[in-house]
Amino acid sequence: MRTDNREIKNTIISIYFILLVIAVLLATVFRSFRLVEGGSLYVLLGLLVAVIIVHFVARFFEYDSDGANVIITNSGLILNDHFNYRENKVEVPREKLTGYKISNYYLYKNLTIYTTGSSGSISNESFNITLLKRKKIRYVRQSLKKIIKENKSHKLG
Q1: Per-residue pLDDT of the chain (157 residues; tens, 9 = 90+)
Q2: What DSSP string runs through 78-147?
Q3: Where would a tag sit more exposed on the chain, N or C end, judged by fewer CB atoms within 10 A?
């Protein structure tokens, strides 16, 4: 099964644009009406916090379990074509996958997969799935459950 959140890129670019327009508008209003002393600074700090939150939440997610390996990719949405500085890509053989956990925080969703190494040690990798739709999260969960169930039946049999 393959799934991703490719369609969200235009939304994130629009959010960045709207944040910029709001910041310019509020900075102009605060400067002209002098409502709050240093109001432009507050607007700038608020914009900076909003951009940082959007930057950390806005990640591209791709899941592919069609072949012999499960491939999960997380990368940034903005400037990803030129600077691939936030990519996290894991390619795991299906039989090495032992578990997963989906954590749902208020503004952040996280997928953690657990794999066994060649020495029997368990390692984990985390992926940002915040912008993945509920239906696609359900598909990823179903696929991972199926793979883990197959792995458990092979070990028992």
Answers
A1: 899 888 888 888 888 888 888 877 877 777 666 666 666 677 778 888 888 888 788 888 999 999 899 999 998 876 655 566 678 899 999 999 999 999 999 888 999 999 998 888 999 999 999 989 999 999 999 999 999 999 988 877 6
A2: TTTTT--TT-EEEEEEGGGEEEEEEEE-SS-EEEEEEEE-TTS-EEEEEEE-TTS-HHHHHHHHHHHHHH
A3: C
**The pair of three-digit structure tokens given for residue 62, joined into one six-digit string:** 């791709």
Claim: this prediction has a pTM higher than 0.85: no
The domain total for the chain is 1
- Domain of 57 in residue numbering reads as 1-157
